[in-house]
Write a structure and sequence with these properties.
The protein is of the alpha/beta class. It has 20 helices and 26 strands.
Length: about 650
């Protein structure tokens, strides 16, 4: 397999075919084609089912997938992108569709499923091996360029390799050689099925947990596998479901953060090695391969954010690459019941055939468009409308663009969130948007009739009265005696309160990142913090984002954090706070140096309501429509501009 460059997209779920289906949807084909056009040399397709005990997103149990493979290969072939299919079995982490227990090397419970798996017997092992062979054969028949066997991230074959999950005393357990025996059987059987002309890769990961597979032991796995002469490349990674925050590191991780954890493994390889780890730019990729140990670089999330990353960079337009900001919206959605891939910064994901930037048609009937508000929603609306050729003006009441992101970037390890604002700002100026800063407008201004369309992106505001989502019947008045020591998130981000001897209480009613960022900012200032949350767990709305647990660990390590769960605000007089509890505990009164309630905000939508009452074409987007997060803001700004353009293009 010959590659035109060293940039690879590693296997990742898309949900664009629905669960347990084939390569049948136009959306999935277009998703991959755009990245091929953009310059990627190799894409490794998301997990495929090899056995009914471990259903994946793609169904490799049927010959129907063969035509899908051929269609995909024909679509990307003109652009020189190779395609490899990852073969996978989840083992104890799988969820069989028929309700039977998952199959695993040993009967050790999975913390993901909460169930004890059934130990694989010889008959099961043979059936799963035959499933790998059948799936690999379909890849060959579908004209793919190769297959990758997943032996990492805590899935079935790593469960055989790892002493954590392999407690067998037969030919498949005990010594290193016996723990390797079954994965080696799979490699040999798959190689025989695909023949000598297709590439065969193996994905491995250092577990990074106590007594798990470490870097040196994985180096032994590499040496043993490549001694067979059957393996053509290794795809090295870090972590697994016992350490999931390391598998797909969020914004707080530096570029190439996995490299120290795979150093010995990579050095043991004599065949090409692929590595990844939040690599965002070609410059970062170049730095990783500069010492010669790593041969190919995975840039998966970076290409979710911008499919044209490679070509733009080669054309001298690296500043025009839409940046991945590491919020892991992609991870959250693909691992949720929704299953469809989304992105915080790229509103076209999953609907590239309709909404990719290259589909924006130049209007035949330019409209005058006013965007009110320069946060992410307003900036995206202005960018798309101006790209289509409309005459766009943007007014922002603050002296700079960015909206709440300009403050959110002040949270520790969160500065990268502003990368998307810098990109949007450059893009709107490049597209010719007329920007007026420090400009406040209201419904009585005389300018409204000058515009054919108005996009209202005025954001949201803190509530005057706290409405607690999990106890809406509990009244808590922010105007009481404690108001002098009560701070909004905006207050804290604009100017961190002076440190007090008594702890500050950060009350989290949202379960998302805002309260975490506020608490960590206070702690970095040396302030003791009681993090009181209405939820029974820490930041549940960040589940699978890989941001919550690392932040909790960082704060606990300072010794300045106390966490209280299932809480509600009862009263605060400026010196003492009374917390109630949703789990039946009695109220608790604490000495307190201040309170930061992080609760639902209210839309700043008065302008849009007033303009609509005047029968003007005004549309509220982002928080001005309903307070949510950056993904929804950019998505709604994008779609509002598309609607304007679709009405103007004949």
């Amino acid at each position: 397999m010959s590659l035109k460059n060293r940039v690879v997209r590693t296997a990742h779920g898309t949900g664009l075919t629905g669960a347990f289906n084939g390569i049948t949807s136009e959306e999935l084909i277009e998703y991959h084609v755009l990245r091929a056009k953009g310059g990627v040399s190799l894409s490794i397709l998301e997990i495929v089912t090899v056995h009914p005990s471990s259903p994946g997103r793609l169904n490799g149990l049927s010959d129907e997938i063969i035509d899908g493979y051929r269609t995909l290969k024909e679509a990307v072939a003109p652009h020189g992108m190779a395609v490899v299919q990852q073969l996978w079995h989840g083992g104890a982490w799988a969820n069989p569709l028929d309700g039977t227990p998952p199959l695993a090397p040993s009967a050790i419970a999975s913390p993901l499923r909460g169930t004890v798996p059934q130990q694989i017997n010889d008959e099961d092992a043979a059936a799963i091996r035959d499933g790998f062979v059948a799936a690999a054969t379909r890849c060959r028949q579908g004209t793919l360029d190769g297959v990758e066997i997943h032996m990492g991230h805590g899935f079935l074959l790593q469960q055989f390799l790892s002493p954590l999950t392999n407690r067998r005393d037969d030919r498949y357990g005990g010594s290193f050689e016996r723990r390797l025996a079954y994965p080696l059987e799979i490699v040999k059987a798959v190689r025989e099925a695909i023949g000598p002309d297709l590439a065969l890769g193996v994905r491995l990961s250092t577990e990074g947990v106590e007594n798990g597979l470490n870097d040196a032991e994985n180096a032994e796995v590499v040496a043993a596998l490549q001694s067979t002469g059957l393996v053509d490349f290794f795809n090295l990674s870090f972590g697994g479901f016992l350490n999931f925050q390391k598998v797909i590191g969020a914004m707080h991780e530096p570029p190439g953060y996995m490299l120290p954890a795979i150093e010995k493994t990579a050095a043991a390889a004599t065949v090409p090695v692929l590595a990844c780890g939040r690599v965002r730019t070609l410059d970062e990729a170049e730095q990783i391969i500069s010492d010669g140990t790593i041969d190919m670089v995975g840039m998966t999330r970076a290409h979710i954010a911008d499919p044209e990353l490679v070509q733009k960079s080669l054309d001298g337009q690296s500043d025009r690459v839409r940046p991945c900001i590491g919020l892991n919206q992609c991870v959250q959605t693909i691992m949720s019941p929704q299953h469809n891939l989304t992105c915080s910064v790229n509103a076209a994901i999953g609907q590239e055939s309709r909404f990719d930037d290259n589909k924006i048609a130049k209007t035949s009937s330019p409209q005058s468009v006013l965007v009110v508000g320069g946060g992410p929603a307003g900036l995206e609306a202005a960018r798309v409308a101006a790209t289509a050729g409309h005459k766009v003006s943007l007014v922002e009441a603050q002296p700079s663009l960015g909206g709440m992101i300009s403050l959110a970037r002040k949270c520790p390890r969160h500065a990268g969130i502003s990368d998307i604002i810098h990109w949007l700002e450059e893009e709107i100026y490049r597209a010719g948007v007329d920007v007026s800063l420090s400009t406040f407008v209201d419904e009585d201004d005389a300018l409204w009739d000058d515009y054919d369309h108005i996009v209202v992106a005025t954001g949201s505001l803190p509530r005057d009265t706290v409405v607690q989502s999990r106890s809406p019947g509990t009244t808590f008045d922010l105007k009481g005696e404690g108001s002098r020591r009560t701070f909004t998130s905006i207050d804290v981000l604009a100017s961190v309160p002076s440190r007090t001897s008594e702890p500050m209480v950060v009350f989290d009613d949202l379960g998302h990142y805002e309260a975490i960022g506020i608490a960590e900012l206070l702690i970095e200032n040396g302030q003791k913090v009681v993090f009181a949350t209405s939820w029974p767990s820490f930041a549940p709305m960040l589940h699978n984002s890989n941001m919550g647990e690392p932040a909790l660990a960082r704060m606990h390590q300072t010794g300045l954090l106390e966490v209280v769960y299932n809480a509600k605000l009862v009263s605060f007089d400026g010196a003492e706070i009374c917390l109630g509890f949703l789990d039946g505990r009695s109220d608790q009164t604490l000495s307190c140096g201040g309170l930061v309630p992080v609760t639902a905000r209210v839309s700043n939508n008065e302008l849009s309501v007033a303009l609509q009452a005047k029968s003007l074409k005004a549309e509220a987007v982002g928080d001005a429509r309903a307070p949510r997060y950056i993904r929804q803001a950019i998505l709604e700004g994008n779609r509002a501009a598309w609607r304007i353009n679709e009405g103007a293009v004949s």
